[in-house]
Amino acid sequence: MTYYYVVDETNQVLTGPIELPVTPGIGVQVPGNVIELTQLLPEAEPGYVWVWRDGKASQLIDLRNRFVYRKDNGTYVYWTELGPLPDYLTAKVRPSTYYFWKDDDWVLDIEAERAGQAAQADVDRDAHLREVVIRVAPLQYAYDLGEATGDQLALLQAWKRYALNLARIEQQVGYPALIEWPTAPAKSVASPTV
Questions:
Q1: Angstrom distance (rounded) from CA 142 to CA 140
Q2: Domain ranges of the chain
Q3: Residue 37 — φ and ψ, nearest 5°?
Q4: pLDDT tens by residue, 51-71
Q5: Which of 26, 78, 129, 158 could form a disulfide bond with 185, CB atoms 3.0-4.6 angstroms apart?
Q6: Which of 116, 113, 127, 138 shows the shortest CA–CA distance to 166?
Q7: H or E segment to which residue 117 belongs
Q8: CA-CA distance, 41 to 96, in Å (whole number)?
Q9: What is the C-alpha separation between 140 and 146, in angstroms, rounded?
């Protein structure tokens, strides 16, 4: 006879084979958490475990203690059960929010990805433009008052050119997936020596 422990009462997972000790004068005593089989079970297939169900040993897929993903929105669920996943779940992680489930796999929604990248580019560009406003204001005031130095005028022009280049990122060939961001000018000019 071959013996296996039932290590998980809920799922009836088998582990073994094990050897039970022979007690002198009594023989082998089989504990309540041990199953006695007539033959040795082969090694379980990768990703599967042996379980005791309906009076027989069978293999079930083991996806316990891991994250699985909803097919409708890609959110994760911590899975604790044996056996195949329900139809609304998959073991495949959703690559990004721009993918949807179709024909047993995640499929890229190219238009949604492009729209998302364009929206992010707008946010990034606007952050750069806010810096332009902060840097240009004092230079523009100096110019308006006729107090700008030559270096300040050059820096004012550089910041304005930078702002125009930021406004033109949509014209780049790879936009919005690939953006070559313009380089910001130096933040200040050296103070003139007196």
A1: 5
A2: 2-61, 66-108, 111-171
A3: -115, 155
A4: 988 888 899 999 989 999 999
A5: 158
A6: 127
A7: helix 110-144
A8: 42
A9: 10
